[in-house]
Amino acid sequence: MAGKKGHRGWGYIRKLPSGRLQASYVGPDLVRHTAPTTYTHRIDAEGWLSNERRKIEMDVWEPPALARERAKARIITLAEYADRWVDERQLKPRTRSGYKDLLRLHIKPTLGNVAMKNILAGTIRSWHSGLGTEYPRRNSHAYGLLHAIMATAAADGVIAANPCTIPRAMNPPRKRDPMIPTVAEVAELADVIRPERFRALILLAAWCGVRWGEVTELRRSDLTEGCEVLQVSRAVTRRDGQYRVDSTKSGRGRAVVVPPHIRDDIQHHLDTHVGEEPDALLFPSARGKHLNDRTFRREYYAHALESIGKPDMHIHDLRHFAGTQAARVGNLVETMGRLGHSTVRASLIYQQIVTGRDAEVAKALSALATEGVPGDE
């Protein structure tokens, strides 16, 4: 090949019909590799060959096509990577829609066009500060999503390390403490809510701890004979104006034994307000569809709360009531099972509320303060 046209000491340069020059060489993998572009001047083609040979001699060579792909990966923007991250995950429709909203409204406007490799810890702190302090729960969700995306990027080798390092950003303090009703207040609320067909909804939410999406998807077949056991295996969610029935929040169903003192009320509700079909909804809307939470709050629940003097109590506070009552008579595992918690954290909160240990600790501290004090013998 020494005399072949285009051959040189190392590599090969040939003139194309267009008049431009193409450079190539046989690499350590015994495959011919061609420059990503053609050249007008021979010195430029030789420069590319020289750079490739230097990489081989320094033992840092990789196929040029692979190197170009890596270079593209290094300049991928957050918006591009985040969209791919969401698309590649098995998510419930409501979760997927929520992630896309967080990206569109709160992450992409600031960080979307930034190259992944340029997003550093300081970049994240500046973005997080720009979210403000008015909506801490929303901010924690946005930060949690970004943290998960960056963790995957670090695992993929797109970035060196996860830059989301803000302490407790995913666990902000509560903006509002739950307003947990008393047993008497729950009974009064069930008595005054109108129409009367919602009485059973209040009782099941408070004494069985079913979430709003769970209680509004309950059907006749979910109750055993005599209303002794409630099977909670589905939940309905509303997103983008559409209702969708899916699994519960934890992804697992649970059987909840109905407290005996409300079984007659639930049976009365079945006999009076629920269709005979096994799949008849327990609490349908006026049109026979799933009950809308906003309609329920505005037209029914708010009036009942005014009647009992608790206008600021949320529907979810009834679930907090269920948690505290369960913690009074059950252990941690039993409370978790009854409420459908997948982690111990939420159930531990209820255990701590009802233990009364704070009072015992305070009493013990006073005992320490009086020990050995002259005149106390």
Can you walk through the features of this model?
By secondary structure, the protein is mainly alpha-helical. It has three domains: 12-74, no CATH class; 78-156; 183-355, Intergrase catalytic core (hpI Integrase, Chain A, Orthogonal Bundle). It has helices spanning 42-57, 64-74, 78-87, 93-111, 121-130, 136-156, 183-192, 199-208, 212-215, 263-273, 293-308, 317-329, 332-339, 344-355, 357-370, and strands at residues 12-15, 21-26, 32-34, 229-232, 235-239, 242-246, 254-257. The strands form three sheets. A three-stranded antiparallel β-sheet has the order 1-2-3, with helices on one face.
List keywords for this structure.
377 residues; mainly alpha; two-stranded antiparallel ribbon; 15 helices; 49% helix
User: From the alpha-carbon coordinates, what is the Rg to the nearest angstrom?
Assistant: 33 Å
Distance between the termini: 110 Å
Instruction: Describe the main β-sheet briefly.
Output: 3 strands, antiparallel
Determine the mean pLDDT. 87
Number of strands: 7
Query: How many domains make up the coordinates?
Result: 3
Topology pattern, helix = H, strand = E: EEEHHHHHHHHHEEEEHHHHHH
Question: What CATH first level of the largest domain would be assigned?
Answer: Mainly Alpha
The name of the CATH superfamily of the largest domain reads Intergrase catalytic core
The assigned structural class equals: mainly alpha
Strand order of the largest sheet: 1-2-3
Shape: elongated
Measured as a percent range, the helix fraction is: 40-55%
| Secondary-structure arrangement, i.e. CATH architecture of the largest domain | Orthogonal Bundle
Poorly predicted runs: none
Q: What percent of residues are in strands?
A: 5-15%
- CATH fold topology of the largest domain: hpI Integrase, Chain A
Helical region count? 15
